[in-house]
Write a structure and sequence with these properties.
By secondary structure, this protein is mainly beta. The protein contains 9 helices and 26 strands.
C-alpha cells in the first residue's frame, strides 16, 4: 500500500515521463517545473558521448550532484538509506522518486563510513552506510549507492537531444502500460527508422536516461540507456549482447544535422535527391556491408555528409526515401576533381550523379521496405527492389522456359537463385549448395535449369563473387 501511495505522489516529478497512450488514472495530476542545469554547447557528434557524458566514480563525486531514488523490487527488501536524525532505516518505497543531493562522506567513530545526502523533497538528511572497508577502497569500484539514478545525465541529455531526429539501431523498444507504475511491454520496430525525441526522463538505476521517441506514424516508444554509466552498478563488459541496446549508441545514431559539415556543402543536408544513373553504393543488411547496384531515379534523403581526411571527397549517408535503408556513397562536389571514363561519365561528381527531388516512387509495400532494409528477397519484389536489397547479382540467365534467373553467391558455399515471372516480379528464391572447385560454374544453374547467360560474371573467382552474398532465411515457396 505504501508503495502504491508513493507511486502516485511521484508523478509530480518532471523527471518521470511516459509514452503517450498510457492510462492516466488521475486527471488532476500536475507537473512541477525544475530548473535544469546549464551545459556546454553541443559538440560534434563524432565524439558525442565522450565530450558530454563523463563517467564519475564515487571518488570523483562533487557535493551538489543530484540523484533520484529509483528502487527495483529487490531494493524493497533491503533498505538503502538511514534517517540521519534518528539513525533508523527508511523504506525505499517511501523514498521512491525523491531527489537526493550528494553532501560528501563521513568516517564515523565506529569505523563505518556514511555517504551523506539531503533530500530536495522533504529537506531531511539521509545517509548510506558502506557495507565494509574505507571510502577509498569502496569508491574505486562500480558498486556505487543502490537505488540512485544519476540526474546529471538526464539533464544533459534533455539539453542535447530534445527534438533531435535520430535513427534506430536496434529493433527492441518498450511502451509504458502504467501511468503510476513501472509497467511496460516490449515491442519490435524497424532498424534505421527515423524518430524524433519527444521526452527524456529517469529510467532505472542501471540505465538512468529514459528516451521517448516518436516515429513518422505518431507511434511512441522508449529506451532506458546508460549515458556516462555513473553509479549504474554495471561493469563495461556487461553492456554487450542483449544489454548493448541499453547504451545510447546501441539504440540510436545521429542524422547529419548533428555533424559538423563545411559551409559550402552544408546546404545539402536533409535534402531529397535521386540518382540520374545506375550507380554502386555500399549498404548494410543484417549487420553485413555489401556493394549494392542502385537503379536510376532512386530517391534518397541526405542524412550525413562526412569529410574524408586528406581529400576533397565526402561520404554521403543516404536514406532511401521509401525503404528507409541507409546507403553510403563517396562523392566530390568539385567537378574538376573527377576524370571521366571512356564514355565521359563522372560518377564521383555529385552534380553528375544526383538531381534534386524525389525521382520515381517504387510504391513498395511495408513488407518489401522491411526486406530491403534487412537485405532479404521476398516474393513480389521487382528487379530494382532486389538490387536495392542484394546488390548486383553474380550472374543473370534466361532458362529454357524463358524464366529470368539471378544468382547471388555466398562465402559459405551457398548460392541464392532468384526467379522472376514474366512481369519482372520475384516468383521464387531458394538457396542451394555451390559447385565446389568449378570456378565461375560455382554459380551455374541448378540441375535441370539449363539456360544461356545474359550477363557474364563480373569476377573471376567464386571467393570474390561470394562477397556479395548473404545468409537467407526459409526459401520462398
Amino acid at each position: 500500500m505504501a508503495f502504491a501511495m508513493m507511486a502516485a505522489m511521484a508523478q509530480d516529478s518532471p523527471y518521470i515521463v511516459k509514452t503517450k497512450g498510457v492510462k492516466k488514472p488521475d486527471p488532476k495530476t500536475t507537473t512541477s517545473q525544475h530548473k535544469e542545469s546549464s551545459i556546454q554547447k553541443e559538440p560534434e557528434a563524432t565524439d558525442f558521448m565522450g565530450k558530454n557524458f563523463r563517467f564519475y566514480s564515487m571518488c570523483d563525486w562533487k557535493e551538489g550532484m543530484r540523484f533520484m531514488v529509483v528502487p527495483e523490487k529487490r531494493d524493497l527488501l533491503i533498505n538503502t538509506f538511514h534517517d540521519a536524525a534518528t539513525n533508523k532505516e527508511v523504506s525505499s518505497a517511501r523514498l521512491r522518486h525523491k531527489i537526493m543531493v550528494y553532501k560528501g562522506h563521513q568516517d564515523m567513530s565506529n569505523g563505518r563510513v556514511h555517504v551523506n545526502f539531503t533530500c530536495e523533497d522533504d529537506n531531511k538528511n539521509y545517509y548510506y552506510e558502506l557495507p565494509n572497508g574505507s571510502f577509498d577502497d569502496y569508491c574505486f569500484g562500480k558498486l556505487g549507492v543502490p537505488t540512485l539514478a544519476y540526474l546529471g545525465d538526464v539533464d544533459k541529455a534533455r539539453e542535447l537531444l530534445m527534438g533531435q531526429v535520430l535513427l534506430t539501431r536496434t529493433q527492441f523498444f518498450r511502451v509504458d502500460t502504467e501511468y503510476d507504475g513501472d509497467g511496460y511491454k516490449d515491442i519490435t520496430v524497424d532498424k534505421n527508422k527515423p524518430v524524433m525525441v519527444k521526452a527524456i526522463g529517469v529510467g532505472t538505476r542501471s540505465f538512468p536516461v529514459k528516451i521517448i521517441v516518436e516515429d513518422e506514424n505518431g507511434e511512441q516508444y522508449y529506451q532506458n540507456v546508460a549515458m556516462s554509466k555513473t553509479n549504474s552498478g554495471m561493469r563495461d563488459d556487461e553492456f554487450i549482447v542483449d544489454n548493448e541496446k541499453y547504451l545510447f549508441e546501441g539504440s540510436f545514431e545521429f542524422t547529419g544535422a548533428n555533424m559538423a559539415v563545411a559551409s559550402d556543402v552544408k546546404e545539402y543536408l536533409g535534402k531529397t535527391v535521386h540518382t540520374k544513373y545506375p550507380t554502386s553504393m555500399s549498404s548494410k543488411g543484417s549487420g553485413k556491408t555489401r556493394d549494392v547496384k542502385v537503379p536510376r531515379f532512386t530517391g534518397f534523403i541526405i542524412d550525413e555528409i562526412t569529410a574524408i581526411k586528406g581529400s576533397t571527397y565526402y561520404t554521403l549517408t543516404l536514406r532511401e526515401s521509401e525503404s528507409r535503408r541507409v546507403y553510403y556513397k563517396d562523392v566530390t562536389f568539385r567537378e574538376e576533381d573527377v576524370v571521366g571514363d571512356a564514355n565521359g561519365a563522372k560518377e564521383d561528381y555529385f552534380g553528375y550523379l544526383f538531381a534534386m527531388g524525389e525521382g520515381i516512387s517504387h510504391s513498395t509495400s511495408i513488407e518489401t521496405r522491411a526486406a530491403i532494409r534487412e537485405g532479404r528477397v521476398i516474393r513480389g519484389m521487382s528487379e530494382d527492389e532486389v538490387q536495392l536489397a542484394m546488390g548486383e547479382p553474380y550472374s543473370k540467365i534466361v532458362n529454357s522456359d524463358g524464366i529470368h534467373q539471378w544468382m547471388y553467391a555466398r562465402s559459405n558455399g551457398v548460392v541464392l537463385d532468384v526467379f522472376f515471372d514474366d512481369k519482372g516480379k520475384v516468383k521464387q528464391a531458394k538457396a542451394r549448395k555451390a559447385i565446389v572447385g568449378a570456378g565461375n560454374a560455382a554459380a551455374a544453374p541448378a540441375a535441370g535449369e539449363g539456360g544461356a547467360a545474359t550477363t557474364a560474371p563480373k569476377r573471376s573467382s567464386y571467393k570474390a563473387a561470394s562477397m556479395q552474398g548473404r545468409k537467407m532465411g526459409t526459401p520462398l515457396k
